[in-house]
Amino acid sequence: MSRIFITGSADGLGLMAARLLIEAGHDVLLHGRNEARAQAALNAAPGALGVVKGDLSSIAQTVALAEEVNRLGRFDTVIHNAAVGYKEPRRIQTTDGLPHVFAVNTLAPYILTALIEKPRRLVYLSSGLHRQGDGTLRDLGWEQRPWQGTQAYSDSKLHDALLAFAVARRWPDVYSNALEPGWVATKMGGPEAPDDLRAAPKTQVWLAVSDEPAATVNGEYFYHQKLRAPEPIVYDESVQTRLLEACERYSGIRLPD
Length: 257
Known about the structure:
Blueprint: E1 3-6, H1 12-23, E2 27-32, H2 35-44, E3 50-53, H3 59-71, E4 77-80, H4 100-115, E5 121-125, H5 149-170, E6 175-179, H6 202-209, E7 221-223, E8 226-227, H7 237-251
Parallel strand pairs: 1-2, 1-4, 2-3, 4-5, 5-6, 6-7
Antiparallel strand pairs: 7-8
């Protein structure tokens, strides 16, 4: 039995993964961004270990969320599932003055990785759109560029893969991997998405708990439980380092060695 924390597990793929893990007998800690979403998560996933709440668009709330998770004891796996989509029509600014997409999709998983007691496994949800992400890492705050929601989302999903690989390099004793679940008919993906929704949560579940040799690896990228080559820049250690440095500047939090 493993203890697993899943961000953004009130609905969508996070909830689907939680249900699969609970059914398999694991202890799953859910997450919602506010009281209503947290309660919805508990209602939708009977048998969960519990739920924590915190708005990942806020640095202060993300820090508080990490502290709350740590008070509940060490977890075997953290699945960084929470994300906002590519349909934001403008640069929505958070309380910290950051683009909403960057704050939730990039900075929050960095902060939680840095502050939650180091688990045995880390799973980061990326996307096939990471291949359209801007590897220069220029203007992460979208202060000079005209806003493009799809580009902002693609950038953030590239960041998630870079983060997984950077952590794998820095923490070789942790299985840190990224995956793309496919374009599926979730609230984010939309009803026309062509991929298999039933298969979409299975890779993160497998990476979270499986003892199969194929799942107990470090610094890999997956699609439907198979290795898939990410955009080559994901392997660039200098780009990984620059992203970590940028996240440290924005958050004031350093990723431990």
